[in-house]
Design brief:
Two copies of one chain form a homodimer. In chain A, 35% of the residues lie in helices and 26% in strands. Chain A is globular, with a radius of gyration of 24 Å. At the A-B interface, α1, α2, α3 and α4 of A face α1, α2, α3 and α4 of B.
């Protein structure tokens, strides 16, 4: 007997019929001898409807009350799903975030989970009852309703799985698993059977938006085996877990990319201690998130400093930097918002040299100029002109043997 | 400075615009130097929509989950109204039934309030904050969400007013007050400035559906002055309070009626101890509510036993009684579901003889045959053929000087 936490997103429970299908899946899992906790999102579109209602009511953002409002979305689905389970002879009980005492901090709209009271859930599971929990929501220490922010239901599920020491946390979604890259860009993209937490983090943050990144961090931290699978198709999905020593690791697990980047370069900055924080300080103070940062070795006491931001923040960051450049006595400010980032991800690269070289050679072979490079233990990212996105991804996908019919070509 | 509890029903807050109007009213009350608690219902139609969703999901009634579902309706309105108040510079905070700890028994769908935790509300009121509470809902001792049943928001408001010892509980609705009778039947019906709790109870239970009867009971028990007034028109409405010794009481406050009655008579029952419970026992066991009961003095050891039930329950009660009649050796079972009840209500009748006689004479004058009579301290009810409803109500309304241009005629 296993303890399974399942999570169903909005598209999986978008209609009464689909909620019925989810109830069938849950009931089948129970019949197979498992104890099950289910976390659910609001029916697809409902959260947006509630936010639209708030916007119609007020031009201001009243964070506490917005959480009171939008948290009703999940409350509707837990009740409906529990009814459907009871109809299937599957004993079940619903809980809001407040009832489960999913305690968070008080950052309304983006709260972080602090702890979970498991007594109710454990009692229900012991009584062979399915526990249906409203995802995305919690309460602060004072009992105010909070929400975890978009995609927070994934985090709810993983946090419950961690607290209950579940055997597996299954995230049901509208894709059948994690792919080597986005199949819309490379039709030969292959579903991965297994990927490590670290790889998934790199994939997720780089644009493969299957799972909420915080959920993956949480799962990695507490070592909760996480499975992404489809609500609509049969299949084993992709297991996200610790590195498995017994299995030969693929060199590269996948190729992520991000179209939302813009690049800013300050050229000829006097190379002094503290220069980086003088440049980035005003940017982060303006709540602009910075992604890649590259600084080259200094030449003649001057250095070039480059970083990327979300494309929506490009103009604001550019305006800010004009002042910074003048203050620092930098020579020139350059910017480009027609760039993309392409990243190779794989724990295998830790033990293999030559990956970076193969990457650069493959791109050179296609006459793709690399504008910026950044590397980590399990990732190599390059920035290129946005027109090269598809060509770059496809050539790398083939070169690293990721195609569904593929084999290693350039190594 | 007064402490006022206001309650706004679904039609008062049916749209974003109307919620804004309610916020204006509340803000004005605060500006006049009052501390205010507001209890609200769901936006009109929302509760029915949620129930329809439940019916679409399941043919069975899952009472606990239905309460989880429908309680979201009020949660939406408390958030929106609080946003609107904040926009008007009126500090405010929303609370669900669970957050206020409106503790009820566990009778889902028709729960009764047991106690209310006032600490949060008092702290907010002390900080000059408007407290916005979700009506209609509570939690049982174990934290399960409960609802008080239709119209329960009135009870929420009165219970809070009682717990906080408020100066007045104002029920805003779509009528401008309590009338001497239904203006749709008698256009000359007059709004009452004042009525006692007891009179209001008789009026409400007899079909003047302005206020939930439980709310009036509650208000009377804890002596909470209750005011019914319109959300849409200016005016003082009707104050429901203890009898005011300083003021000359009207003989009759109003004429209530009920079209939903059906009458059942068992004729020739052997007159023995315990016969009433043998007749009514099976009916109440079948969850059929009994309204009027009349038993005449016995003749030759036999008696006639008559009672009324809701018209929807007529057939079921009739079927049940067939068996009972056989068991008791009664002579005959008669029934009539084309009857109505008309009632005079007034605390004044306690100290005045002749009211009943005037009533019967007035009806006789119109050739209206009385089928059944039942009296209490402050009420006289008669059952007549349903075709006489309008004529009966109007002639009594005039006879007792209730017409807007009226004067006492027959006394």
């Amino acid at each position: 007997m296993s303890l399974i936490v399942q999570k169903y997103g909005g598209t999986s429970i978008g209609t009464i019929e689909k909620i019925g299908n989810v109830a069938d899946k849950v009931a089948a899992c129970v019949k197979n001898g498992n104890k099950v906790v289910v976390a659910v999102s609001a029916m697809s579109g409902e959260t947006n409807k509630l936010i639209a209602l708030a916007n119609e009511m007020s031009e201001n953002k009243h964070a506490r009350e917005l959480d009171v409002l939008v948290s009703t979305g999940e409350q509707v689905t837990i009740a409906l799903l529990t009814m459907a389970l009871l109809d299937r002879g599957c004993d079940a009980r619903s809980y809001t975030g407040a009832q489960i005492r999913m305690v968070t901090d008080d950052a309304h709209g983006k709260a972080r989970i602090k702890n979970i009271q498991c007594e109710n859930m454990k009692a229900d599971l012991d009584a062979n009852r399915v526990v249906v929990v409203a995802g995305f929501q919690g309460v602060d220490e004072n009992g105010n309703i909070t929400t975890l922010g978009r995609g927070g239901s994934d985090t709810t599920a993983v946090a419950i799985a961690a607290a209950l020491e579940a055997d597996e946390c299954q995230i049901y979604t509208d894709v059948s698993g994690v792919y080597t890259t986005d199949p819309r860009v490379e039709p030969k993209a292959r579903k991965l059977d297994r990927i490590t937490f670290e790889e998934m983090l790199e994939m997720a943050s780089l644009g493969s938006k299957v799972l909420q990144i915080r959920a993956v961090e949480f799962a990695g931290k507490y070592n909760v085996p996480l499975r992404v699978l489809s609500s609509f198709e049969e299949g084993e999905g992709t297991l996200i877990a610790l590195e498995d020593d017994g299995v030969e690791q693929a060199l590269i697990s996948g190729i992520a990319f991000n179209r939302d980047e813009a690049q800013l370069t300050i050229k000829g900055v006097p190379d002094q201690p503290g220069v980086a924080s003088k440049i980035l300080g005003p940017v982060t103070d303006a709540n602009i998130e910075i992604d890649m940062i590259v600084q080259n070795t200094s030449e003649d006491g001057f250095t070039d400093f480059t970083f990327t931001v979300h494309r929506n923040d490009y103009q604001a960051a550019h305006d800010l930097l004009k002042g910074v450049c003048a203050d620092l006595g930098a020579k020139k400010l350059k910017g480009d918002d027609a760039i993309v980032k392409i990243s190779l991800v794989g724990v295998g690269m830790r033990s293999h040299a030559g990956i970076a070289n193969t990457m650069f050679a493959t791109l050179a072979n296609e006459n793709i100029n690399i504008l910026m490079i950044s590397t980590s233990e399990i990732k190599i990212s390059v920035v290129v002109d946005e027109k090269y996105l598809e060509l770059g991804v496809r050539s790398l996908h083939e070169a690293f043997g990721l195609d569904s019919d593929g084999h290693l070509k350039n190594l």
